[in-house]
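Let us walk through a complete example step by step. Step one is to write down the protein sequence. Step two is to encode the small molecule, zinc ion, as a SMILES string so that its atoms and bonds are unambiguous. Step three, shown after the inputs, is the structure prediction itself.
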Amino acid sequence: MAQRVSVNISRRNGASGGAESCPQCKQLLSAVELRDNYSVCPNCGNHFRLSARERVAMLADSGTWNEIAAGLRSADPLQFFDLRPYSERLEEAEYDTGLGEAMIVGSCRIHKMDAVLMVMDFSFMGGSMGSVVGEKFWRACEAAIENRYPLVAVCASGGARMQEGILSLLQMAKTTCAVELLSEVPVPFISILTHPTTGGVLASFATLADVIIAEPGALLSFSGPRVIEQTIKESLPDNFGLAESNLNHGQIDMIVPRSQLKDRLVQILGMLEGGVACALEPLWEEEAGRPGRRGPLAGALGRIKAFANAPWRSLKR
Ligand SMILES: [Zn+2]
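Step three: the predicted structure of the complex.
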């Protein structure tokens, strides 16, 4: 006699017939609607997570992306095994994302201006930083210094990769040293913090940039609010660790909605070149606030102007 069997099927990455439900306001959004709106919910403004490749397509001029160190893969020096072998997790992440690691690095042009761009992908093991992520960041800095290109980093990370133990924590020191090399030349470094940027990445290179931009609503916190609440046995404000709270506390320079992100990046790169600084400066000055009531943007503007007034592109080490 035939038996009835019910099977629950859930699709990953929201691929339910091209429609996706917004996790914030629950509105059902079509794939076309999302794509046309930079993967931002038109109803509540929630910024959906983007893959590293989508970020490159959004920021780099078409056909100019030239990837660096694409063949680097993590080793498994500790032969780490939690519920499953680390090597198996790496293989699965590569299969799911089509990426060799949680970060891609390359040179490109952004509105016809040369730059080195590095982008993290949260879908690859939570954007965690292991030895290869650290090495790729190092090579991005080397390429930026060698060519005198500004470095633009798009960050998304859960922190250090526990499967690499102390080796992952060492990447905090390594990437910090790499930023130090950038500042010695100097070569400008712009960091774009997206949801979520946490742990060892937030506590190292992500927040050491000359200009720090964040997307609205991004969680930017060393630990998640729930972990902190459990530790200190106190409840935290609703906006704890969010980009807006970080801006109020002077931790970041500006919050830029994704639809305006490339334009704002182009403005900064243009000002760094010195060429269009004169045209844009009054607008930025107005946005930075009146003397005596200067907002967070004022600090970034000062650092950009310092580059614009120095021949950093032609300086040789
Ligand atoms: Zn929404």
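Step four is interpretation. The pocket of zinc ion is lined by residues 22, 24-25, 27, 41, 43-44, 46 (CB under 6 Å).
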